[in-house]
């Protein structure tokens, strides 16, 4: 279990992480979401004792990670996959980690196999693709067979096969009771991977709830209807003050259920050809929630759009 209590980090005038409190529990993949610059990496670094909090505490299994007797057995972390000695082979890199952390050498073969890296174990790291480097980083994180895994943006820049592999890997770890904490700014990816979300913007906690609750709470319910009697239905909706808009062949209606729209149509003898509820995606819910906390905005035409969530698919 990971616990942040009032975690705060200032860099001069800049508050990178602002009074964050949350708990990451075992048995699920917890997504740590926020636009670029929201404070995800800084938070993860503080949990790992690589940055000192200005205020507050971060606990791993009830104590600061810096107090861990066997750190790699407690937490495995992938922060920056390219931050390794490129001249070494994958096997040599993992062996040196084993030696410096007092882990048995047999773990090297175990994690190479686990991450599908056995065939390239003798190759130098500098020739690795980003996907291979990510796998090696994950292999290193798994060396101590830890109960807690932390991955900072593990799917950034990966091809679909690599993304799928990491997603399945994290889910299988969680299903075997491990704590998996993974940061990302890719909403659609987190919707497929994480059961729980911790969302931050400008260092502040915006949401801490299940992925489904997040979508339910942050996406507005809309109903779409297709009818050959559009004018009659629009009049009936306008008469009760309902907001509507035309979207292609549909009328889109805010704030009513499909039942209410169906009943209203029946009352006015309006034939319905299609009627369905539409919820916005996790992507839209995230954009809505973090709209005011995105650091940098790009301009498209005369509209401001968040520049930092453009990578989301
Ligand atoms: N060493 C530092 N000195 C000064 N400012 C910093 C430092 N490290 C981070 N920051 C600032 O703190 C804020 C949070 O950065 P952080 O890297 O934690 O965000 P992030 O959510 O991980 O973003 P990204 O998705 O871009 O990695 C940013 O405004 C960043 O510029």
UniProtKB/TrEMBL annotation:
Entry's Gene Ontology molecular function annotations: ATP binding; ATP hydrolysis activity
Keyword ATP-binding found: yes
Domain named ABC transporter: residues: 2-227
UniProt keyword annotations, A-Z: ATP-binding, Nucleotide-binding, Transport
Record-linked Gene3D superfamilies: P-loop containing nucleotide triphosphate hydrolases
UniProt xrefs under PROSITE patterns: ABC_TRANSPORTER_1 (PS00211), ABC_TRANSPORTER_2 (PS50893)
Keyword ATP-binding (UniProt): yes
SUPFAM superfamilies, alphabetized: P-loop containing nucleoside triphosphate hydrolases (SSF52540)
Sequence intervals crossing the membrane: none
Stored PANTHER family: ABC TRANSPORTER, ATP-BINDING PROTEIN
Family to which this protein belongs: Belongs to the ABC transporter superfamily.
Name recorded for this polypeptide: ABC transporter ATP-binding protein
UniProt source species: Rugosimonospora africana
């Amino acid at each position: 279990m990971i616990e942040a209590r009032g975690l705060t980090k200032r860099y001069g005038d800049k508050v990178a992480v602002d009074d964050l409190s949350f708990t990451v529990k075992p048995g699920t993949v917890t997504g740590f979401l926020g636009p670029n610059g929201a404070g995800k990496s800084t938070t993860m670094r503080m949990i790992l004792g690589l940055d000192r909090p200005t205020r507050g505490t971060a606990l791993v299994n009830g104590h600061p990670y810096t107090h861990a007797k066997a750190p790699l057995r407690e937490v495995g972390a992938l922060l920056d996959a390219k931050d390794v000695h490129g001249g070494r082979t994958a096997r040599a890199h993992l062996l040196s980690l084993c030696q410096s952390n007092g882990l048995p050498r047999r773990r090297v073969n175990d994690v190479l196999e686990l991450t599908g890296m056995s065939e390239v174990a003798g190759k130098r790291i500098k020739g690795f693709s980003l996907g291979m480097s990510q796998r090696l980083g994950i292999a290193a994180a798994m060396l101590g067979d830890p109960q807690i895994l932390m991955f900072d943006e593990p799917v950034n820049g990966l091809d679909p096969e690599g993304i799928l592999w990491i997603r399945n890997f994290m889910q299988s770890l969680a299903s075997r009771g491990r704590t998996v904490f993974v940061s990302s700014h890719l909403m659609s990816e987190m919707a497929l991977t994480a059961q729980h979300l911790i969302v931050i913007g400008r260092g502040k906690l915006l949401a801490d709830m299940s992925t489904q609750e997040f979508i339910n709470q942050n996406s507005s319910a809309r109903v779409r209807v297709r009818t050959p009697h559009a004018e009659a239905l629009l009049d009936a909706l306008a008469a009760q003050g309902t907001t509507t808009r035309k979207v292609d062949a549909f009328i889109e209606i805010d704030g009513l259920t499909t039942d209410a729209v169906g009943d209203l149509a029946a009352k006015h003898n309006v034939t319905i050809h299609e009627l369905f509820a539409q919820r916005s995606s996790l992507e839209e819910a995230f954009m809505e929630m973090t709209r005011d906390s995105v650091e940098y905005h790009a301009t498209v035409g005369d509209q401001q759009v968040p520049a930092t969530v453009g990578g989301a698919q």
